[in-house]
Design goal:
The chain has 19 helices and seven strands. It is α+β, with helices and mostly antiparallel strands. It has three domains: 75 residues, Double Stranded RNA Binding Domain (2-Layer Sandwich), CATH 3.30.160; 98 residues, Tyrosine recombinase, N-terminal domain (DNA polymerase, domain 1, Orthogonal Bundle); 192 residues, hpI Integrase, Chain A. The strands form two sheets. Strands 1-2-3-4 form a four-stranded antiparallel β-sheet, with helices on one face. A hairpin with a 2-residue loop joins β1 and β2. α11 packs antiparallel against α13, α11 packs parallel to α15 and α17 packs across α19. It starts with 9 loop residues before the first helix and ends with a helix.
């Protein structure tokens, strides 16, 4: 004779106490109450689909009442009668009720497993929350229209941020591809939009830079006297002194770590995760740079992992505005930027090719620039030490030229 299960009552559920291990109390027909060791309670429906045992949660108690759980059991059994898996149906229903913001966060969580840099996740999320979420975040994803998307770009257009517009367009396209893959929507509406009509035309951005010999001489003298003329923290002073000699991208200079530098070998090695090119990069150090870094390490090594720690906390490097602010204080506003040291080196190095004797390819390698010729790049499989000796000679030439001013 089959065992008869006595249905649950609200009183029984309320009085159910936690035990050492999780346990269940059956209501019959697959529905049961799970009581965890910590005392939380939720309804679970156990069923069989295509010969496999499966389970689905119906919600926590008391948020979900006993009557609501039983109603959900009836609905699930009706789906099973139609040969539909209740778990898949629940997931689809959840997707159909997803807001744009919910889908964005799911995509960010999914992509974060692929991105190697935390900075990529942080910047991408910030871009979406600053430009898209405020306008359509609460709207159901499946109800977002072309006009909604166009409005995002029209709003951004007023701020003249064309590069950011392109970045957002690429991000939104990836989000829609994700949504299609997971059956949240059936069509990528980004493909219906001609972005050339709504995104500002791309303008070539030039970083302000001092490239005239006499102006460079004055700049180097101002940097040398910066400590005496202005009140500044020691990290900014040394980072400013080092910047012309290594002409790194501002991020790589700010986030320089002691572990990256080997003064005995005279090299500074930056991992691909930090590089714009996503390739490991090695900088041969001139004798002048080795001396400067030795001085820097006397105050920062052992206190912080960063070569130029923030004056506020040793756990962070100097801010991205520190050097730019220093240049402005010296009177170089709209004349020189931190990134401008790269242009300064490139201009003079190309002008002095007959003196240092190195091809323009060596100059580009010192700047960690990508090969623009795609065919040539496809066959170029050399490692981070490519033309190391030539680059070392050029870096020393540059340091001597600066000192010679």
């Amino acid at each position: 004779m089959p065992k008869i299960t006595t249905p649950l009552t609200d009183t029984e559920i309320r009085k159910a106490k936690p035990k050492e291990k999780q346990y269940k109390i059956s209501d019959g027909a697959g529905l049961c109450l799970i009581v965890t060791a910590k005392g939380s309670k939720y309804f679970r429906f156990d069923y069989s689909y295509n010969g496999k045992r499966k389970s689905i949660s119906f919600g926590t108690y008391p948020g979900t009442s006993l009557k609501e759980a039983r109603d959900k059991r009836i609905a699930a059994k009706e789906l099973l009668y139609k040969n539909i898996d209740p778990s898949n149906a629940k997931q689809k229903e959840k997707s159909e009720n997803d807001t744009f913001e919910n889908v964005v966060n799911k995509w960010l969580e999914f992509k974060n497993k692929e991105w190697t840099s935390p900075r990529t996740f942080k910047n991408t999320k910030a871009n979406l929350y600053n430009n898209a979420i405020p306008l359509i975040g609460n709207k159901l994803f499946k109800q977002v229209t072309r006009h909604d998307i166009i409005n995002i770009f029209e709003t951004m257009r007023k701020r003249d941020v064309n590069e950011l517009q392109r970045r957002i367009a690429n991000i939104l396209n990836n989000i829609y591809r994700y949504a299609i893959t997971y059956d949240i929507v059936e069509h990528n509406i980004m493909s219906d939009i001609d972005l050339s009509h709504i995104i500002n035309k791309k303008t070539l951005k030039h970083f302000n830079a001092v490239t005239n010999k006499n102006e460079i001489k004055m700049l180097m003298e101002d940097i040398k006297d910066y400590k005496n003329n202005f009140k500044a923290d020691i990290s900014t002073i040394y980072a400013l002194k080092l910047a012309p000699y290594v002409f790194l991208r501002p991020y790589n200079l700010r986030f320089a770590e002691h572990s990256e530098i080997d003064l005995k070998k005279g090299i500074w090695e930056i991992s691909k995760e930090k590089m714009k090119t996503k390739k490991d990069f090695v900088i041969p150090l001139s004798t002048q740079v080795i001396k400067m870094i030795s001085e820097v390490q006397q105050y920062s090594k052992g206190k912080s992992k960063y070569l130029f720690p923030s004056p506020i906390t040793n756990n962070k490097p100097i801010s991205d505005s520190a050097l730019l602010h220093a240049l402005k204080r010296m009177g170089y506003k709209e004349r020189m930027t931190t990134h401008g040291f790269r242009s300064m080196f490139s201009t003079i190095a190309h002008e002095k090719i007959n003196e240092h004797g190195h091809h323009s390819d060596i100059i580009e390698l010192c700047l960690a620039h990508e090969e623009r010729n795609q065919v040539k790049a496809a066959y170029n499989r050399e490692n981070k030490m490519k033309h190391y000796d030539e680059r070392k000679e050029l870096m020393q030439f540059w340091a001597d030229w600066l000192d010679g001013l």
